Amino acid sequence: MKTGQINVQTENIFPIIKKFLYSDHEIFLRELVSNAVDASQKLKFFAQNGEYKGELKDLQVEVILNKEEKTLTVRDHGVGMTAEEIDKYINQIAFSGAEEFVQKYKGKEGAEQIIGHFGLGFYSAFMVAEKVQIRTLSKDKGAQAVQWESNGSPEYTITEIEKEEVGTDIVLYIAEDSSEFLEKERIQGILNKYCKFLPIPVIFGTKTEYINDPSGEKDENGNVKRVATEVTNQVNNTSPAWTKPPVDLKDEDYAVFYRELYPNTFEEPLFHIHLNVDYPFNLTGVLYFPRIQENVEVQRNKINLYSNQVFITDNVEEIVPEFLTLLHGVIDSPDIPLNVSRSYLQSDANVKKISSHITKKVADKLAEMFKKDRKDFEGKWPDLQIFVQYGMLSDEKFAEKAKSFALLKNTEGKYFTLEEYKEKVSSLQTDKDDKVVCLYTNNPEEHFSFIQKAKGRGYDVLDMEGPLIPHWIGKLEQQFENLSFSRVDSDTLDKLINKDEEIPSKLTKEDEEALMPLFEDIVDKEKFTIQFESMSSEEAPIIITQPEFIRRMMEQQKLGGGGFYGAFPERFNLVVNGNHEKIGEVLATKTKKSRERKIQQLTDIALLSQGMLKGEELNRFIERSIDLV
Ligand code: ADP
Ligand code: MG
Questions:
Q1: Ligand 1 in reach of 34 Cβ (< 6 A)
Q2: Are residues 106 and 222 located together in one domain of the fold?
Q3: H or E stretch covering 494
Q4: Domain coverage including residue 322
Q5: Does one domain contain both 116 and 245?
Q6: How far apart are the C-alpha atoms of 276 and 245, rounded to whole Å?
Q7: 35 in ligand 1 pocket by Cβ < 6 Å?
Q8: pLDDT of amino acid 95
Q9: Taking all residues of the chain, what is their mean pLDDT, rounded to a whole number?
């Protein structure tokens, strides 16, 4: 037996590891299993190129839980280590910056992320174990099996042992305060999370001692004892879809993989993108487009980040642009630095490249789909629109590319690209300032009468429903010169698309002055601005509108939050059509009382057609209408 000191510059690095290394202690298992997988793959490699001539056993990795003995063992049949290798790879841990680090960051926030920099893969075992053994036999011919043991102080012992099989057992004696890691379900859960797609089979088993089994050997008290291993199923799929060449996969394979990734999701994705880059960085993955409709938030953070098939995180916010976090699927890149702080990730050049590559791929895929089968793309648009709009709002490059496939739908259900639409409506819907004015509704039913009137004039009306529409419209106006959007109820027909064609008014100044007080008596002046307009006689006698800019401001207040919601009261215009014959009739009416009655009735009808007549006022209107019959 040999004893020695683990070569670290400070006496008490282990308590620090335990406390700070990773905020999530559970990752010790990921580290140990991925070491075991590495060792197995190395042996496979040596066997293939003839460096290893021994027998290549089943290379599976076994995780064995023994609750009675309070141990958790990670066993592989990989390359193993000689005593010299243990000395080199385990004892001489390159802790150059550790001492300095400890002095500098002791007790400071975020320390765990920085110490993660040191990549203490194997030593993370001490986060949960009070004693760790490495029992290993090297692949080298005639090697002596050895056991390394340490109780978490920088001291260790090395002993020669008997071990027949090449490979390594890492035995963790789980510490009192970490007993959660002796629970079968907990371990199963961790393996499921981190090891689900490792390239070497991972088997999980629990070892239990059965007392009073008549066929078993007797212990010192005369009880019969037998050790049984209960093997659960293999934890992982060793060749997940993203590791295969895209040509080898059918749509069905992608669908199956989606269900494997999200067993609790019943919704089928819309389509997928297979990422496969090896230059200038390594990146593979499969991204899925979910059906996103109203509830954006539940869709988020479903992309899983892997490094060589080892799960790292499902929080990819810094790695992909925000709008892409709506996608689902897997990204695997050995080039993404792990265990480092988020701010470090953000500034990492590789991460930036990866991020813009993914954005480009996604835009290209959408453009390709649009080109290949426009009908199909149009069918998917209702599910895609939020994603595309979000992308255009948050990423300039994406917005540029999306010009070619972003769609507008009109109230007849026809789809147009922005250029196509501009072309279609420009002859009738260009205003005096040479702006093409697109009319839209976000509620065809509510705006029915406005839509009919607009169509009567030969105008087209877009059907634009969705939570991002108010922002997106702003974006389009900024991106396309001479294009503007007005909601179909935001003004009178003549003003919606102002062509500067004056219609002579039938009302004189005196007429207006006579009418004004009648309206002022019945409408709330805080809420309505009363205007007289000379409109065409086919328009309604009174129209309630809300100017586009006021409505957008209200919408932005609601959406963007900000402290100033409610700061601006809702305002509307009550527009009186001076050229309508009913207004003329009101003026000709003799008694003040019946004038008032007519004005009230016309105003209520205008409110009613905007859905703004409610409660007591609605009731009074109904009663008055009955009287009138
Ligand atoms: P890393 O995996 O990043 O190299 P670790 O601390 O996880 O760092 O492991 C240190 C080294 O110890 C490995 O590079 C490997 O040489 C050796 N090692 C660890 N676990 C095993 C194992 N199960 N079989 C063989 N070698 C191992
Ligand atoms: Mg490792």
A1: no
A2: yes
A3: helix 493-496
A4: 241-382
A5: no
A6: 8
A7: yes
A8: 46
A9: 85
